[in-house]
Design brief:
Helices cover 60% and strands 18% of the residues. By secondary structure, it is an alpha+beta fold.
Length: 171
Amino acid sequence: MDADDKDVEANDEAIAGSISGNDQAASDLAAANDRYLRLQAEMQNLRNRTSREIADERRYAALPVLRDLLPVLDNIGRAIEAAEKAGEAENLLAGFRLVRQQLETILSRHEAERISPEGELFDPNFHQAILQQPSPDVPANHVIMVTQLGYKLHDRVVRPAQVIVSSGPPN
């Protein structure tokens, strides 16, 4: 074999190696592409499942509160029934006092706080003024009377307290 034959043979081996290297690279590329498509499908499935879970969570978020309120509703029915049978208003009053206490307990369990600002400085973030009247006993811009209790949940006002505000001593 002469030098030219050896060069041709080496060139043929290099080409064959290059072709098999290209086949390997193509195979690796196809495998990587397949993994990419599978991961993309898994991510889409995860997004869909998470969206469904969030929607269900929002839909049923009030469920614990409703479960806590149902016994109160039952007790209201019992209180009315007892008052009708006894024919006395005192039993009805006692029953509704019990119901009110249950509701207050449920609200505090769910971290709802009462806003009862009688005598405090008027704060429009927590109070809703429904009337302003003169008062010799209460300084100006202070709450004279609370007409409806307000409530807040954590740091958010659920319902502002409706109040009557002093305009100061009468002229």
